[in-house]
Amino acid sequence: KLVIFDKDGTLICFHTMWAPWAKTVAESIAKASELDIEEKVFDLLGYCTTTQRIYPGLLAEATSFIIQTELVKLLSAEGLSTERAWEIIKASWNEGDDDDPALLKAITDLQTLFKILRRNDIKIAVCTSDSRKGTLTTLKTLGLDQYIDMIVCGDDTNTQPKPKPHNAWKICGKLEIEPEHAVMVGDTQADVGMGRSAKLGLSIGVLSGIGGTDDLKAEADHIIRDVKDILPLILPHKDWREYYAYSANDRVLLEPYDGLEESLETTQLHENKQYSKMVDLVIFDIHGTLMCTHSRYSKWMEKLSER
């Protein structure tokens, strides 16, 4: 009845948004403090200059205030007064959320995904550690604000950082949804940890952002590639099948059908009860399904051709 999404790394690409931000802020802090401190700032934030990617850490999981506080501690450890450190951090800080298309990249066709959820009477919430101002800008730019029932941000009053359950319970209470009927979707251990600690119905980890399988598996009930793949986990089989089309290497979301009558094929599918049952047997092909056809048969084909 409710899906709670994290934002960065779950709905939008974390790296294209925050890697440039990390470099800009680190350079600004170093210049204002007159300290050779950029690498220490990067380490604190969780930014790798070699790969130019963000890894699990403060930037990926903490609120703006927590990050600022830790940066102040870093400058204080370098000999600056706390007052001067706060002045530098405040002056160097800027909102990372941006409406620049070069930086703001949706993970998948989010408008279609949200339309599908709304079509199936599933409410949508976003819970992020980022500021409300930046979050609203991002969601409006992506055209998603019209589909979202509730947004909880890191600088809102009466909130607590993930993985504490407070924000999930706050969303469920406001939208009048029992926690066991809600799902949390996110790319970090803190995201799925919030779902777990709040005792939500499902905690789903996505591999589109910061966390890898090892980071997510301890708290996640399921781990999927990205949010496009959540439908089979939250909708009956007879319902989610109509929302996907398949290419050679991927599946694509389809807009919900708005006609008054369903096609004969869809109607027959809905009436066929076998699709809603658990199966007793799975039959696998071998080559190309369980093992790589190319590595096994490429040399074989070459030898056959030579003969």
Low-confidence sequence ranges: 260-277
What name is given to the CATH topology of the largest domain?
A: Rossmann fold
Annotated CATH architecture of the largest domain: 3-Layer(aba) Sandwich
Provide mean pLDDT, rounded: 85
CATH homology superfamily of the largest domain: HAD superfamily/HAD-like
Radius of gyration: 23 Å
Element pattern in H and E: EHHEEHHHHEHEHEHEHEHHEEHH
Describe the structure.
By secondary structure, the protein is of the alpha/beta class. The protein folds into 3 domains: 2-12 and 103-238, HAD superfamily/HAD-like (Rossmann fold); 14-101, no CATH class; 246-256 and 270-306, no CATH class. The protein has 14 helices and 10 strands. The chain has helices at 14-33, 38-45, 58-61, 64-77, 82-92, 110-119, 132-141, 166-175, 189-197, 213-216, 231-234, 237-240, 264-271, 293-306, and strands spanning 2-5, 47-48, 53-54, 123-127, 150-152, 182-186, 202-206, 222-224, 244-246, 251-253. The chain has a 6-stranded parallel sheet, sandwiched between helices. β9 (244-246) and β10 (251-253) form a beta hairpin. α2 packs antiparallel against α4 (64-77). The longest helix is centred in the first third of the chain and has 20 residues, at 14-33. It is globular and about 75 Å long. The model is unreliable at 260-277 (pLDDT under 50).
